[in-house]
């Protein structure tokens, strides 16, 4: 199966993701679509940490030079470095994530930091309405299940769960609707009818 640029990109992590995907698929399970989150969008969502970290570190260095915090230096330095590194960690985390839609289910696969993780949502367990949540920077979330633990990195605080930070979310929703045997046009029409009621 040929790979497009929006599918598994050539990264240091693609071989591990492909192995995990192949190990996870059942016999006769067919891949309909696969892709990764937009790592730049997630990184930019956390860039506010840089606005905190720069003055934090500047004040830390002033405090060090004046010997105000001799015993707590490492804590303040580590906190500043962690805030600067946070968005880059998110970027690397996304590069180690793969979303897959098959003829049976939606999969979220991760090889983050050497730990192989697989979460699966059968098509029959998906919500009636697929929800798109725009997050800016050319990306959006596609929620297809509810009442999941909000501890999951793929669920929001209300338990809405799905693919995070997709670049081509409308296209992916149409593919998932087709896999579910639904018409995207019919779904959009039903949503419009609900809003006008």
Write the layout of secondary structure elements.
Elements (H helix, E strand, L loop, with lengths): L13 H11 L6 E5 L3 H7 L2 H18 L7 H23 L1 E6 L2 E6 L6 E6 L8 E6 L2 E7 L15 E6 L2 H11 L4 H13 L1
Antiparallel strand pairs: 1-2, 2-3, 3-4, 5-6, 6-7
Helix pairs in contact: 2-4, 3-4
CA-based shape: elongated
- Oligomeric composition of the shown chains: single chain
Alpha-carbon distance between the two ends: 45 Å
| Uncertain spans | 189-197
Largest sheet entry = 4 strands, antiparallel
Name the strands of the widest sheet in spatial order.
1-2-3-4
Describe the structure in your own words.
With 197 residues, this protein is of the alpha+beta class. The chain is 42% helix and 21% strand. It has helices at 14-24, 39-45, 48-65, 73-95, 169-179, 184-196; strands at residues 31-35, 97-102, 105-110, 117-122, 131-136, 139-145, 161-166.
């Amino acid at each position: 199966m040929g790979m497009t640029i929006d599918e598994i990109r050539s990264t240091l992590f693609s071989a591990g993701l492909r192995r995990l995907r192949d190990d996870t698929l059942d016999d006769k399970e067919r891949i309909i679509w696969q892709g990764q989150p937009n790592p730049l969008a997630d990184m930019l969502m956390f860039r506010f940490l840089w606005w905190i970290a720069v003055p934090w570190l500047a004040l830390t260095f002033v405090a060090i030079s004046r010997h105000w915090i001799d015993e707590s230096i490492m804590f303040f330095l580590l906190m500043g470095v962690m805030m600067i590194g946070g968005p880059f960690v998110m970027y690397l985390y996304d590069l180690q994530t793969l979303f897959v839609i098959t003829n049976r289910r939606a999969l979220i696969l991760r090889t983050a930091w050497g730990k192989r993780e697989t979460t699966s949502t059968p098509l029959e367990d998906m919500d009636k309405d697929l929800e798109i949540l725009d997050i800016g920077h050319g990306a959006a979330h596609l929620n297809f299940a509810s009442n999941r633990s909000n501890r999951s990195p793929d669920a929001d605080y209300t338990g809405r769960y799905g693919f995070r930070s997709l670049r081509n979310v409308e296209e992916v929703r149409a593919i998932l609707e087709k896999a579910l045997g639904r018409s995207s046009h019919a779904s959009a029409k039903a949503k419009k009818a609900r809003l006008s009621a």
